[in-house]
Amino acid sequence: MGQILSILSLSSLTMTIFRPIKPNLITQLFGENKVSFYKELNMNGHNGVDFYAPMGTPVYWNGSKRGKVLSVINDATYGKYIEIIVEEEPEINKYIFAHLSKFNCQAGDVLESGQLFCYTGNTGKYTTGPHLHFGMKKVAKNRYGNYYTTNRDNGYKGAIDPMSYYKNIYVKDHIAILNAQIPIFERVIGFVKALISLRIQLNIKRKKK
Fold first, then answer.
1. Which of 20, 69, 191, 197 has the most beta carbons within 10 angstroms of its beta carbon?
2. Contacts of 209 (CB under 8 A, 6+ apart)
3. Which of 25-29, 110-114, 156-160, 194-198 bottoms out in mean pLDDT, i.e. has the lowest?
4. 3-state helix, strand, coil in the chain (%, to 5)
5. Which pLDDT score is estimated for 35?
């Protein structure tokens, strides 16, 4: 069943981003608040999307494709944060989840859609209360296989607006919809297998004649 779910989840060539937490409230969009707060960071405005979230809210991998945990970091700016890479797209993208309270993964882990990997918090210098900061950057690989952010001089340190990829459905609800499709998918697979088996049997009979 897990393999079928993965096939359904990866069936689209286009990456879709779902809501990573249950609370359905965006408190700040990309590019908003063009104030000194962001000028200190040499940015034109907010470089991500903020979701309201009480302290300790579970966060699930919200991409429609598998993600690989690139790094698990604790620093002064973002506090506790996680970077996830997705290479199963036409372009390589990096996703950032920041101001966390607790990690539930480590670098190198591969995440399936809907997999729990961290909890929201209020860590780091640039936060005014518990929430989840979600960011997205386009990256590339150098000849040594290391990732680097492209277009770092766009006024947002390479971050782009993720909302063009975003679908406002809680990722756990998205997984439930996929699970409901599995019995239909299994029947289709069974039918295809039966046709292949019949074709093989007919070919064997013809060869015997």
1. 20
2. none
3. 194-198
4. 25, 35, 40
5. 65
Cβ neighbours of 183 (radius 10 Å): 11
Please report the DSSP string for 113-170 in residue order.
TT-EEEEEB--SSS-SSSEEEEEEEEEEE-TTS-EEES-TTSSSTTB--GGGGEEEEE
| Mean pLDDT along residues 95-103 | 98
Has residue 79 got a pLDDT over 70?
yes
Distance of CA 44 to the CA centre of its chain: 25
Residue 129: helix, strand or coil by DSSP? coil
DSSP 197: H
Residue type, 121: G
In the chain, where the domains are located: 12-168
Query: Is-contact 50 99, C-beta < 8 A?
Result: no
Integer Cα distance of 209 and 149 in angstroms: 65
Tokens of 45: 């405005």
Contact 132, 51 (CB under 8 A): yes
> Whole-angstrom Cα distance, residue 23 to residue 171?
12
Lookup: tokens for 148: 């680097």
Q: What is the mean pLDDT of residues 122-148?
A: 93
**12-168 in CATH: which number?**
2.70.70.10
Q: Is 123 in contact with 131 (CB distance < 8 Å)?
A: no
Cβ atoms of 159 and 48 closer than 8 Å: yes
Q: Which two tokens stand for residue 138?
A: 């386009």
Q: Which residue has the tokens 């101001």?
A: 99
